[in-house]
Amino acid sequence: MTDIVDSIPDLVARLDHARAEGKRVGVVPTMGALHTGHLALVDEVRNAGANFVVLTVFVNPLQFNDAKDLDAYPRTLDEDARAAATRGVDLVFAPSPGSMYPPGHQTSVDVHDLTRRWEGEHRPGHFRGVTTVVTKRLALTAPAVAIFGRKDYQQWVVLRRMVEDLNLRIEMRAMDTVRESDGLALSSRNGRLAPTDRVRATAIARAMRAAQRRFADGERRRVVLEGVVRDSLNGDVDAIDYVACVDPETLEPASDGSVTMQLLVAVHVGGVRLIDNMRLVSTP
Ligand code: PAF
């Protein structure tokens, strides 16, 4: 089992020691409940040259706009540390909410335009929570390289912008979404799906692939592509928060005729909110 450190001074001491030995620190920020996708991030950060990997586990209250969702979020620290050990993680940093946000804490980080739509609109305050906690995690670990999954595509674009805007000298890496064989994107939330809902959730990847096929066949009208996804999802999911074909960089609705679009989807299935995305390209 990888060592778990929960105090900030202990984390700093371990990192100072690693750096004094010439190690290149890589960080994998997570909220725990690790799955194969998280472990693939660990492998990838090593491929990026990190030889001291810190995996942070912190269910960040600031990024949950729904208290029930925060309560329901799985907390499996011991299992996480065991899983981390199988991939050679050097340290798990799992602070308490009180040490991350001590009394008197009053600073937050905001990225403006990129957070206005999609997740930002449906989860007010969510991105402020994410950008604030990621800034703190990066400040505490001061890594050479940090890695995030593209499954949270908007989050990835927002964090990349934030690191650039704040002149943080950290190499930001992203990794493609890891999927089950039936296409469902790996997520810590999948474990909350009842077996029949787990089957229904496969509609998301199917719907995105249907849009991808239409795009490859030459369809370039945003609304038509979004309609393909909605039609395909209807009947399988309980509610759709949004289906949007966007510019991959600005996250604004894509212009008709664009040579590439990022398809973003957020739905509810059996009481669980799931998000996914896919790059639409002419030759997939
Ligand atoms: O993607 C997540 O798990 C979280 O949003 C992150 C980046 C670890 C911040 O809490």
- Which structural class best describes the helix and strand composition? alpha/beta
Give the averaged pLDDT, no decimals. Answer: 97
| Beta-strand content | 15-25%
Tally of strands: 9
In one word, what is the shape? Answer: globular
Strand order of the largest sheet: 1-4-3-2-5-6
**What's the SSE pattern?**
EHEHEHHEHHHEHEHHHEEE
Small molecules (ligands, ions, cofactors) in the structure = pantoate
Which parts are unreliable, with pLDDT below 50 for 5 consecutive residues or more? none
Q: How much helix is in the residues?
A: 25-40%
Record the SSE blueprint.
Elements: E1 4-5, H1 8-20, E2 25-30, H2 36-47, E3 52-57, H3 67-72, H4 77-86, E4 91-93, H5 97-100, H6 119-122, H7 126-141, E5 145-149, H8 153-165, E6 171-175, H9 195-200, H10 203-216, H11 222-233, E7 239-246, E8 261-269, E9 272-280
Parallel strand pairs: 1-4, 2-3, 2-5, 3-4, 5-6
Antiparallel strand pairs: 7-8, 8-9
Helix pairs in contact: 7-8, 10-11
Which terms summarize this structure?
3-stranded antiparallel beta sheet, binds pantoate, single chain, globular
Explain what this protein looks like in three dimensions.
39% of the residues lie in helices and 19% in strands. The chain has 284 residues and is an alpha/beta fold. The protein has 11 helices and 9 strands. It binds pantoate. Pantoate binds at residues 29-31, 60, 63, 130, 133-134, 152, 155.
Give a short overview.
Helices cover 39% and strands 19% of the residues.
